[in-house]
Structure formats: C-alpha cells, structure tokens
C-alpha cells in the first residue's frame, strides 16, 4: 500500500473562507480530500492509541495564511508523515 499527496486544492468553506485541501491517493488513486486539521485529529488519535513515542512527528501548525511555497512544503511533510505512519502500522 502506498500513500501519496500529489496535489492540493484551494476550496471554499461554509462561511465563504478558503482553505487548502490535501488530495490523498492510495496506490495512485484519489481516496479523499482532507484539511490539515483533519490530519492533525488523526495524528492525535494515533498518538492516543499507540503512544507518542511510536508516532512520527507531525508537521507544525502555522498561525498565519500559508504562502504557495509553504503549502507545497507542508504537502511534502504530510506525505512523508503518512508514509511513515504506514510503516509504523506495518511493523
């Protein structure tokens, strides 16, 4: 099984604000679109279940709006995180 986040999308929220959605692919097929906050929630659940010493580090939250370069950097970090979580789960 292979997780990747090959692209992001800027989407509109319910209140008209915009956010970045991360397109998660499993074995090359789009599986879902998620927000950073949803992945952070997943990270917290995994830490609770398996302990924080087993779970890889999660990309830090930023206070201000991300620049396009920062969105790309976060996308890369989240992709590496998802792949690392997969390896922890397999082992």
TrEMBL record:
GO molecular function, one term: phosphatidylinositol binding
PX domain span: 1-91
GO cellular component: early endosome
Record-level GO BP terms: endocytic recycling; intracellular protein transport
InterPro entries: PX_dom, PX_dom_sf
One Pfam assignment: PX
Protein name (record): Sorting nexin 17
Organism of provenance: Cyclopterus lumpus (Lumpsucker)
Name of the gene: snx17
């Amino acid at each position: 099984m292979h997780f990747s986040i090959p692209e992001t999308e800027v989407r509109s929220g319910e209140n008209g604000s915009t956010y970045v959605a991360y397109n998660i692919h499993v074995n090359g097929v789009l599986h879902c679109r998620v927000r950073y906050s949803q992945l952070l929630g997943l990270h917290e659940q995994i830490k609770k279940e398996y302990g924080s010493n087993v779970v890889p580090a999660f990309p830090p939250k930023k206070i201000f709006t991300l620049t396009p370069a920062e969105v790309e950097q976060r996308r890369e970090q989240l992709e590496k995180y998802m792949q690392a979580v997969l390896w922890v789960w397999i082992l």
